[in-house]
Amino acid sequence: MKIVEHHLVQLAAVIETGGVTEAAAMLGMTQSAVSRTISILEKRVGEPLFVSGRRPMQPTPLGEQLGLQGKAILASSRKAMEIIRSFKSGSFGRVRIGGVPFFMDAVVSPMIASFQRDEPGIMVHQSYGNYSDLVSELESGQIDVAVTPTGSADLRADQQFEPLLPARNVLACGAGHPLMRKRNLATEDILNYPWVAPLPGSPLVLDLHNILLTLGIEEVSIRYAGGSLMSVLNYLIGTDALAILPLSVAYSLRRENRISVIPLDIPQPERALGIMTRTKPYSNPAGRKLVGHLRREFSELRRSVEKHEREIHWAHGPFMAERERKGPD
User: Fold this and answer.
1) Where do the HTH lysR-type domain residues begin and end (predicted)?
2) CA atoms within 13 A on the CB side of 129
3) Based on the number of CB atoms within 10 Å of its own CB, is 140 exposed (0-12), middle (13-18) or buried (19 or more)?
């Protein structure tokens, strides 16, 4: 014996509403169609499903049990429709986002938190990676969105990149570092202290080499390498070491009063931090909603960081003197 699922749904509707006419109205069907279904179902099981002559209609014990199965099917169908509506509106779903470690920890994760306060139905899965890793993960569909710094020359045809924040690096140290008490800061002062190396594969590695080359410094003493953002911060606080950090990261940590920015102007990279996606991604309204939120958050962050940067009294080293000698680009 084979029971058709939608027959059970109609049976459940009759039990729920107490009548064939009411059930037909609830399901958007005709009365005759529902009556025919109940008749077919009774013939198939060989037993009556409703007590004769009762109004509202009262199910027999067998009818009640079959009606419970139909009710479960009806509930699942309604849940499925609700999931579809929520997905299409962008209020339900999953977004997989990857990004460079320091930015994700200090800048992006708070943005995700504020996003989910308004969109609790969206699950966000965050991962880490440098530019080459993120490109591969986007291509293979492992992530939907990447937050990464890059230059325009690095982009591929199947990717689109929206720059949101200019790259700007600073020299960072613990809040009580001796250099923060020095009035006349010179480039040579940074030679007297050990350094924290950027994470392997990070663009900050190349940035550090460019800084040393431009400032005429052959090498610095590297004492600590490979740490996460939290471990680097804790190391800076416990030592007199120096590190290169993105300005936006240092700005995001300002309220903790754990690290300080050494106001020495240094060479800056020609790239931007932004959002990278596939040119033709599969439909993911929740992903588009998250990207829109990040876009707004980064716009506000950019204004705040630029204002903060103007308030710092930068000590101009050899790099600035050389740039002023050459004039504007």
Assistant:
1) 1-60
2) 18
3) exposed
Q: Are residues 186 and 242 in the same domain?
A: yes
- Tell me, yes or no, whether 16 and 38 share the same domain: yes
Q: Tell whether the model's pLDDT for residue 320 goes beyond 70.
A: no
Q: Check whether residue 176 and residue 252 sit in a common domain.
A: yes
Q: Which two tokens stand for residue 68?
A: 């419970």
Exposure class string for 262-278: b at 16+ Cβ within 10 A, else e:
bebbbbbbebbbbbbbb
Which CATH number belongs to the domain containing residue 40 in this structure? Answer: 1.10.10.10
What percent helix, strand, coil does the chain show, rounded to 5?
50, 20, 30
Q: Which of 153, 152, 146, 133 is nearest to 201 (CA)?
A: 133
Helix (H, G, I), strand (E, B) or coil at 171: strand
Could you tell me the pLDDT band of residue 8, with boundaries at 50, 70 and 90? very high
Same domain for 158 and 84, yes or no, is no
- pLDDT tens per residue across span 121-146: 999 999 999 988 999 999 899 999 99
Beta strand extents in 184-313 (DSSP E only) = 195-196, 222-224, 243-246, 259-262, 264-265, 272-278
Contact 166, 272 (CB under 8 A): yes
Element at 97 (helix H, strand E): strand 93-99
| Shared-domain flag, residues 140 and 178 | no
Cβ atoms of 98 and 137 within 8 Å: the answer is yes
Q: Which domain holds residue 186?
A: 169-270+312-326
**Token pair belonging to 2:** 């084979």
Judged by DSSP in three states, 141 sits in coil
Terminal alpha carbon distance of the chain? 83
Number of domains in the chain: 3
Do 244 and 171 contact (CB within 8 A), yes or no?
A: yes
Provide the CATH number for the domain around residue 212. 3.40.190.10
